[in-house]
Amino acid sequence: MSTTLVLTVYVLTFSVGLPANAFTLAVLVAKAWRRPAAGPTVGDLLLLNLTLADLLLLLALPFKMAEAAAGMAWPLPATLCPVANFCFYSSMYLSSLFLAALSIRRYLGVAFPLKGQGRPRPSHALAASAAIWLLAGGHCSVVFVAHYHGGGSDDSNTKTPNPNLLTPIDSRINPIGPVDSKTSNCIDPKISNPKIPKTPYPSSPTLPRCYDAFSAAQLRFVLPLRFEFFFVLFLVPFSVTALCYAGLIRVLLARPALPRGQRRRAIGLAVASVVIFGLCFAPYNVSHVVGFAHGRSPPWRVYATLLSSLNAAIDPLVFYCSSGAVRRALAGVGGTVRAWRWGEGEVGGGAERRLLGHGLGQ
Question: Is the pTM of this model over 0.85?
Answer without folding.
Answer: no
